[in-house]
Amino acid sequence: MATFIIYAIRWAVTLTLLYSLYRLLLRRETFHRLNRAVLLAILVVSPLLPLIPLHTDEPTAMDVMLTRIEEPLMSLSSDANHADATLVAQESEEAASGLWVRYLAYIYIIGIAVAITIYLFRLLSLARLLRRCQRISHPVVPKDVHLMLDMRIKQPSSWMHWIFIGPIDLMQNAETVLRHELAHVRMKHSWDVILCDLTCHLLWCLPFVWMLRQDLVDVHEFQADEAVLQGGVTLEDYEHLLVRKAVPTQFIPIMNTLRRGAVKKRFAMMHTARSSRWSRLKLLYLVPAFAACLWVSAKAEEYKTYLDDKLVVQKEELESIDPSTIERVDVIHSQKKVLIETAKESADTGGAMPVVKPEDAYFDMVEQMPQFPGGDAAFNQYIAQHVRYPNVATENGVEGTVTVQFIVEADGRITHVQAVDSPSDEADANVYAYGASDKQSSQDEDDEGHRALREAAEELFRGMPPFEPGRQSGKPVRVQLTKKVIYALK
Q1: What percent of the chain has a predicted confidence (pLDDT) above 90?
Q2: How many CB atoms are located within 10 Å of the residue 291 CB?
Q3: In the chain, is it the N or the C terminus that has fewer CB atoms within a 10 Å radius of its CB?
């Protein structure tokens, strides 16, 4: 529920930005088809833009505000009584504001339920009207459109492919009224109203969405009026009909009716000269509006922080860390994790923590790992061409695998080369088959051979050309790598 409310806030802000520009620049233009398309685009795009996964390194002002709102809203998913007790027990101003946020969220959700319930009742009223009406025919109305007659209908109206008319209008103004309602049916205005009503019910507390709905209804009426006048009805006769129909009567709000739009506004539009084609260039102002909406929808990337393999829940835990005790920080973008390792207390140092300078910090895993120039194939070729088998190891039959650790600097240089273990040697099992004196002598020779292999491996890596450095967030960083060199005698 909290996630939906945060999404609804971003949706509302996006719709407000886009609609404000429409109302300022295009509302008074006579491009009725274009204006309808823009309004429908706003209704479709505004709920989609917040779903685009845009991320920023730093939280935007909108993101900061929503974060403050989201914390008390998260309690909506937990036990309400427990959450209330927790908030009331806290006597801080922040707790009080959080309580108000939760109450407003409850009101918002209740408002959605009420709005949808009212809409369903209106659909039920429409269904009852359809059942009691009688279908008739008229020369103006094609067969695929259903003309429905009922004695109680005072205001002609239409919905989807149904046109509703009363006996008085059928006898006096049938052709003009039917042309008007037929224009609504042909242009599928009912689908626009359904989409707009859905948005209004989900964002019922936003005034701009209701203003957009009224503008969309006005555009529908402008289009229907234009279709009637192009059908041969004179402007004077049509205006007289609209004045007669301006008397308020009861009708179902989800339907299109002859008097739905403001009569004065419709008269003004009928007498307004056609807008210049250059006025369409005002649409270009929507481009920065879309950019602003994307900025509003952008979110700061959320990472889970682990301190010594323990998930950090409170920010105070991070603030209490002494920076000098941090040994390593790993950022895993694919898993949205930040791993922080601190130095452990040691008995050899009397409980003191070794100090790691910031310039000595390095990564074990980054987005783009360091690479030997030319790739792994070139690396293996370099090893084969430059490896040196020490004479001491050859004479004593010592072979094995040496594991070497080194750091690739931000500029690609190889530093801190170190063989981290003794080479594995299958011949070690045969050393202890000799006598005591022979065993000691063979052991010394093997140790010397192993040491020579480690030194040869370290020398091999120190002489390597610079690597292509590793990168984190697009920036070159220090990365520690581990490689193995196999020494084997034929």
Answers
A1: 34
A2: 10
A3: C
